[in-house]
Amino acid sequence: MNYPPDLLEEWLIGCKGATIELDHSGAPAPFGDGFDPCILGEGSLNEFDLEDELTEAISKQYGVKESRIALTFGAQNSNYLFIHACVEGGKKVAIEMPTYTPIFAVAGALHGKPMVFRRTRAHDFTIPIDNVKKLMGRGAGAIAITNIHNPSAKQLSDDELRELLEVAAKKDLMVLCDETFREMSYVKPSSAVCRIADNGISTCGTSKLWGLGGLRVGWLIGPEEVAEKVIAAREYSSGHPAVRSMSVAIRAISKKKWFRDRALRIARENIPVLKDWLLEEKRLRVKFPDGALMFLAQLPKGVDDVEFATRLFKGYNTAVCPGTYFGAKGSIRVTFSCARGDFEVGLRQISSILDMML
Asked: Which residue among 117, 154, 156, 295 is the one 20 to 30 A from 184 at the CA level?
């Protein structure tokens, strides 16, 4: 196995300490807004009891049997464990592009260069079903997507998801869907794929909606046999999630509505800023988000996204993510989980860098 460097992670680390952070896609940590992470009697907590309690909480949220749930160390770990334990050897994974690149890298390291189907701006970043069918005909062993899509913030409808799942089921393929942004939809969230069809595999964690990525708590929901394989792989590789992390996650999941309302409040504060800016800034082609706290902006022809983001960081200490690190060369992913004032300043700085480069 050969794992390439995680260039997105390296970029985020390199931008640590930015004055204006337009590179972090999750909601900010909730502690200053009234969420209490303190756990009484922590020393007496039992990891096995907490696993049962956390699994029960997730079961109630999704309306699925507990036996279909595998606890993991975050959504990214869920994706890894599924690809590692549940994709048949010798089979490649068909993956959307652009996408959250760790999924692509893991599939490549474990099963060879992934098959790619492109979600394009010209087609509003929908799933190209005909292209997916071609890849299945060439022997794909599984399909991997994100919903809400990272980095475009496109939400797939239940009908679109059902069509993909039905097409995959005809070839006896499972569809892995990273749903870390799903509950951050501005309207009613689309259904979890695990609720739509038996071959739907949903992964999520406490990072994006909850702003609690440091807990490293996640879950996978699918058929019982898939959950069993993922749990076994996790136990052999990593053991059990941390006691304190599970305790805080149980409390957070029980307050999901509070966390969703909080994320949508941040979006409502910043979306008017984005709309006003786009009325004047005509040099970028922006996919307006369906949810989450981010958008994808296509830079003018000839402007390199890594150079642009580097100039923005060095010139203003403001961070955005180059689209290259998602497979969207020539674009930047801009987030707005920050305060409204910082977002306003950051957008003006983006325009200033465009002035310099054009």
From this structure: 117
Question: Could you give the C-alpha distances from 285 to 168, 292, 300, 332, 356, in angstroms and in order?
Answer: 33, 18, 8, 11, 18
User: Does residue 323 sit in the same domain as residue 242?
Assistant: no
To 10 degrees, the CA torsion angle through 232, 147, 26, 258?
Answer: -90
Question: Whole-angstrom Cα distance, residue 153 to residue 346?
Answer: 19
* Cβ-contact 348, 307 below 8 angstroms: no
Which element (helix H / strand E) includes 243? helix 243-254
> Model-level pTM?
0.96
The span from the CA of 64 to the CA of 68, in Å, is 7
Q: Is residue 2 part of a domain?
A: no
> What is the per-residue pLDDT for 43?
59
What pLDDT, on a 0 to 100 scale, did the predictor assign at position 1? 76
User: Nearest-CA neighbor of 318 among 341, 287, 298, 343?
Assistant: 343
Domain that holds residue 323: 7-28+257-357
The structure tokens 């440091």 sit at 214
Q: Quick one: which H or E segment has residue 79?
A: helix 75-86
Please name which of 218, 135, 181, 163 lies closest in space to residue 294, comparing C-alpha atoms. 181
Name residues whose C-beta falls within 8 Å of residue 156's C-beta, 6 or more positions apart in sequence: 126, 127, 145, 147, 149, 190
* Domain contains 74: yes
Task: Give phi and psi for 60, each to the nearest 5.
Answer: -70, -40
* pLDDT tens column, 126-139: 999 999 999 999 99
Token digits of residue 206: 């406490």
In 138-178, alpha helices (H):
158-169
Q: In this structure, are residues 81 and 73 in contact, taking their beta carbons and an 8 Å threshold?
A: no
